Batch of 2 targets.
Target 1
Amino acid sequence: MSTMTKQETEALIQEVLEVYPEKARKDRAKHLTANDQSLEKSSKCITSNRKSLPGVMTIRGCAYAGSRGVVWGPVKDMIHISHGPVGCGQYSRAGRRNYYVGTTGVNTFTTMNFTSDFQERDIVFGGDKKLDKIIDEIEMLFPLNKGITVQSECPIGLIGDDIEAVSKKKAQDLDKTIVPVRCEGFRGVSQSLGHHIANDAIRDWVFSRAEGKEFESTPYDVTVIGDYNIGGDAWSSRILLEEMGLRVIAQWSGDGTLAEMENTPKAKLNLLHCYRSMNYISRHMEEKYGIPWMEYNFFGPTKIEEALRKIAERFDDKIKEGAERVIAKYKPEWQAVVAKYRPRLEGKRVMLYVGGLRPRHIIGAYEDLGMEVVGTGYEFGHNDDYDRTIKEMGDATLIYDDVTGYEFEEFVKKVKPDLIGSGIKEKYIFQKMGIPFRQMHSWDYSGPYHGYDGFAIFARDMDMTLNNPCWDSITPPWKKSGSAMSVAAE
Amino acid sequence: MPSVMLRRNEEGTLLFYVAKKDLEETIVSVETDTEDAWGGTVELSDGSKYFIEPISPPPAFPTTLRFNRV
């Protein structure tokens, strides 16, 4: 289906790389490739998870973003202190739209910003006393919090504060879970290490405290791991699992709670949606508690059907029947969606550049609508992500790792996709170039996109963006050749 | 001496995973793989080789072990 041959794609990459100085060109060349479906291992064609080049525009975040923003942030009944200067917490507050149920400021705190607001004197004399005081203040003002995490910003690591000691002491005083997370922004090359650090903090500080807690389990207990409930994603996934007869005992971490996290080691199967950010803890639970984990994909009806059957295979006939029942129930619903939107979207070409699981997971949903993904890439993916991507993408399509602002623009100019899905930093550049754009990090303020319900919204959004009449108005009337106006002027 | 997590994939073959190196490969061959010991030189699908003193009795997978590079 692809319109470019492998040679053309490779020539395009070479052409784009031309402007770089030689050293930079050599480095960047390793991160760009034309897809080759015959490869089993991505390490043969692409390098990933390396430090971005100084001087080019990268779209990556930091370890703090990975821990506070992604993994810990959505845990709704805990208070996450952005420990350090005020900006990190304030500018990352509530941006990911992790929906939750609860009364904000009383028993849930996800959209609030708690910070220790470091001043010069805290850098000079250390911030441990301040942290101690803040935790007391939080206890007084928000007594219904179930626990506290201390999310370190860069200065904490630089001045060598001992947040572990403070956390241990306060946890004992207050008899609460207090988690110090060493997610200083300078660690690692992207937010990816922040995910890992956050996962390790859960392992060390949550599971250890939870041991011995009573829990009534059933043979059908599963957890939803790596679903951050962006625009309600986890809810539209969860209902499918519940309808087929499973019991979802924990959501990690969208609309999740501390108690749910503590219960997770009692599950029978961990269902992993975002592999990148939570595979570490899934692997740990497999080793320590013997809970198997599996990846699944709830984007688009084809992949949902596949995933539901794959999940059901791990259980008895009752669940297998349940899966078939769910698939049959929703079939007319999604067929109506496809019938409505496919004719309007058929044959359109999409370029993606996002993070986590989306560069590969969403492909199926686009294909269900008759669209083709002609380029994809991860902000902070590792080689195992690209291993999983090669088979999903068509032959000779573009794959770019940690693409720079310049490269992305040039690729778009040459490939000329009909739609781009990327982040807010890219959105207005491409819209001004006259190319329809969806912000695919938080679904452009829409969603959910997971599950059957999400697919209907996804299809509507793509149609709404692509077939919007505003794209005809990008060229001003006096620049349109042969327009009525220029005729009149002559 | 990388710390390696060993687990079985869906097909039942052993995976060799080093988190710090982003390395996840299947194990092609193990020198000693009998009922009472497991270990020796381990060869991965990418051709690299690692060594571990044979463990007796064989460990239950998944597990984390320390290997040496060969």
Target 2
Amino acid sequence: MATISLKDLVKNYGKVEVLHHVEGEFQDGEFIVIVGPSGCGKSTLLRMVAGLETVTSGEIYIGDKMVNQLEPADRDIAMVFQNYALYPHMSVRENMAYGLKLRKFSKDDIERRVNEAATILEIQDYLDRKPRQLSGGQRQRVAMGRAIVRDPQVFLFDEPLSNLDAKLRVQMRLEIKKLQRKLGVTSIYVTHDQVEAMTLGDRLMVLNAGYVEQFGTPIDLYEKPASVFVAGFIGSPSMNFLPAKLTNSHIELENGHKIPTSSAQQGDAIFGVRPEHMVVDDNGPIEVKTELCEQLGANTLVHGRLNKCETSVVASIQGHWDYEPGSILRFNVTPENHHLFDSKTEKRLES
Amino acid sequence: MVEHRPILNIVTHLVLILGILIVALPIWITFVAATHDEARMLQAPLPLLPGPYFIENFKKTLFGSGLSGTETAPVWRMLMNSLFMAIMIAVGKIAISLLSAFAIVYFKFPFRMGFFWLIFITLMLPVEVRILPTYEVVADLGMLNSYWGLSIPLIASATATFMFRQVFLTIPDEMLESARIDGAKPMRFFFDILLPLSRTNIAALFVILFIYGWNQYLWPLLITTETDMTTIVMSIKQMLEAAEQSPQWNIIMMTALLAMIPPVFVVIGMQKMFVKGLTETDK
């Protein structure tokens, strides 16, 4: 178990810089999720911590040791890969024991550790099978088993659930979380799935095109997104963004309707509202011309456009509703659920 | 195609049987010739049914000094020579091309692709093309009339290197990364992961290369002058020309028959892995 710190990390491929001065301090035992769209550099960052990619500049510390130059094997880490990377010619037992064998553990010790890990993951029954005789979920467990037998200081997960079907993914997600709590090992988990990120992470690092957009707890990210990107990425369906003008304590929408605000800012802005915070109110300031209703059972998604404008708006309202296309609905949003962003930098405007 | 038409069935079988007959006839004649005595084989027409002298011919060929009136080594000796040569060539080729493919795929060093193409170019330089300089080198190293001289000049193989390169490229990168995290050094990774994963390909290649080595004719002919080192394939040809007398077909054919046996065993014994190695893509 150890802390991890990333100091001014930069990664170049040839002349192209793909990670820009990433900073991060991860606490001992913390579950960190790195999340972002594909190509944002999240896997690269993870592989740099693992030692599979070189560091262009900056420093990585595991515990208080600088590990930039260390081989992956000497960093005391374990990694779970997206395609599991089990050795196909070895049995589950041999797969799990391989790392221990190379580290010259005694036979009894290996036996004991493998059995312990197998018990935790409930894979005792197929220790002697080959990986190809296992289902996707079982392989996933074996891959985790291979990571935990070594009792490393850090777990690294590279999108470990993306090859599983939806139901299994939810189940394994819970198990990973439980396992990590139980073992208390500092973990870094990479995913592009925001639900996975929100449910698993103690803290989330949102990456976009090689920049850290925001680093904080899931609730922080949800309630106070630092930028339009984070606001749009976290939450489903994603936040509505309405172009607006700020004038003496009012938000003026495109169609001229005004919403009172406590913000003292002036000028062009982006007004963000989450669909689940839109409340139907006949006197509300947000006028929406409906286009389509999606009934999901517990709630209904109303898709439409801001009246007399092109900006599309989604509202999520409780219960079953079915509005005729073209009907006008009015919504209100309580001030604590207002999000204001600068229209140029797309950063959050604090009141 | 799944069709059930009786006439079609009969026709397909006829075609197959005809094909087998055409392929098998020369082998049958070889066998028949090996079961008659010398005199019968010189009369026309050639016999088509086996005669009574099989055991006698067998003993004479395998343990005698071969043809009467010449000084050739006994055939068992030639069989051993051929076997040693073929195994040394097959094993040597596989070992060297595995290592070169490993270097080319998994290590980054200057002129990597240059080396790859250099190896590839040797495809255009089989022994027959470079026979004089190769002979010179082997002679200078004092390897004439030795197993080393028979096998080493034939060991480098561009085809096998290329094949193993392709095999290694299909093994996912994560396998290497995972082994690195587990603490495997390069040669560990090679022996523990790469070798077992290319096992079937090695078997397939072994079959092909064993037969290639077994069938070598020109090179052994040049390099061996002592009768003790002759190989079976080259000596069959020599037997035909040996001695100023009519060829002793019964002995020659028995030798040919014996020469066929080891490759047949290798093919039959490794057939399953051979097919797997050439068709399997799942890693």
